[in-house]
Amino acid sequence: MQSNPDIKAPLWLLAELTYRCPLQCPYCSNPLDFARASEELTTAQWIEVFKQARAMGSVQLGFSGGEPLTRKDLPELIAVARELGFYTNLITSGIGLTAKKLDLFADAGLDHIQISFQASDETLNAALAGSKKAFTQKLEMAKAVKAHGYPMVLNFVLHRHNIDQIDRIIELCIELEADDVELATCQFYGWAQLNREGLLPTRKQIADAEKVVASYREKMAASGNLTNLIFVTPDYYEERPKGCMGGWGAIFMNVTPDGKALPCHSARQLPIEFPSVLEHRLDDIWYNSFGFNRYRGYDWMPEPCRSCDEKEKDFGGCRCQAFMLTGNADNADPVCSKSAHHGKILEAREEANHCQMTIEQLQFRHQRNSELIFKTSV
Ligand code: FES
User: Fold this and answer.
1) Whose CA is nearest to atom 2 of ligand 1?
2) Which InterPro entries match (predicted)?
């Protein structure tokens, strides 16, 4: 089915099993109109997707959502994926996880678990997640994950309301014996983009956090602590864009709960009709579909990307960000200072300097927007 020998197989398949989730984070990565996609692939349909991906050469399979633990067939899906030879990774909030489920996942052969936290203390965690019980449950499950002998990644999405606690966040991760810690500043897609004003940290907050991370890295190296701290800064404070997804249709494929195949988790919002795994084979989608070929290579690029000597490094940046901020996904990512739309990024930085929004106001606004969008989506 491969018609272009320059296109390599997708190494990483992300299976977004569901958009259902018990939490209500203001930076949720679900699409805004996720209520429209209420259908979910069946167990048999997911297994067929995994078989086709593995036959193409995919090696890593992430189970994500929404909250993938809401799928009762998760142990079966993990077992099939492992039998097929995938390296399997569960990306979860930890809500709904139990010691019994961990036993089932271990029996099924799950390789790796990532648990996300909202903050280092119960009060802020509850305010951000919209759930009072979430923090205690996450702590218990992080301990249980380690007790089961899993390599564990703890993920904290950082923003203006929790980034100043980064020292306490790192302390908590050390206490929980995390192997890897992702301190990932919010990326502005979906709900995070809608709530950006209340989330984007200031440049000073980022710089202060960077210093704290650097000092912990030094201290931990000196004491022989092997916890790996990964600090991801927001591209809103860069002058050159990120090479999003390692390039469009280069290494990554996302399948949504209702079976759309996407080159990134946000592409559903673009004015492109992406194919469904219910109607097309995965290899046909990857190699031949219009959507996956739309931004491959460099021929599609207008200026300033076309003549830029960094285009092979950043691929013109992120197509979804270009679309969200300029209305046209062909444009250079406005993060780039060469973009004619870079002013949008400068405005956002300025907005962050003057924002007074409290966490309560942010959550109130998020709830109100969720209700409004939900009503218009269904
Ligand atoms: Fe879609 Fe960057 S998130 S291309």
Assistant:
1) 318
2) 4Fe4S-binding_SPASM_dom, Aldolase_TIM, Elp3/MiaA/NifB-like_rSAM, MoaA_NifB_PqqE_Fe-S-bd_CS, PQQ_synth_PqqE_bac, PqqE-like, Radical_SAM_PqqE_MftC-like, rSAM
Helix or strand holding residue 79 (H, E): helix 74-84
- Give the residue numbers spanning the domain of 271: 11-377
Ligand 1 atom having least distance to the Cα of 244: 2
Cα distance between residue 43 and residue 18, in whole Å? 12
Separation CA 352–CA 364 (nearest Å): 19
Residues 6+ apart with CB under 8 A from 328: 322
> 227 in a domain, yes or no?
yes
Q: What's the pTM value of the predicted model, to 2 decimals? A: 0.91
Per-residue pLDDT tens for 44-85? 999 999 999 999 999 999 999 889 999 999 999 999 999 999
Q: Which amino acid type is present at position 265?
A: H
- Compute the distance between CA of residue 363 and CA of residue 321 in angstroms, rounded to an integer: 24
At 104, which CATH number? 3.20.20.70
Report if residue 5 sits inside a domain: no
Identify the residue whose C-alpha is closest to ligand 1 atom 1: 320
pLDDT in tens, 347-376: 999 999 999 999 888 888 888 887 877 666
ipTM of the complex: 0.96
- Please name the residues in contact with 218: beta carbons below 8 A apart, sequence gap of 6 or more: none
| Residue owning tokens 């650097």 | 214
User: Which SS3 state, helix, strand or coil, does residue 130 take?
Assistant: coil
Ligand 1 pocket mutation, candidates 16, 193, 244, 333, criterion most atoms within 8 A of CB: 244
Contact in structure between 9 and 56 (CB atoms under 8 Å): yes
Q: Which amino acid is at 106?
A: A
Q: Residues near ligand 1 with C-beta < 6 Å?
A: 244-245, 264, 266-267, 318-320
Q: Classify residue 4: in a domain, yes or no.
A: no
Residue 27, domain member (yes or no):
yes
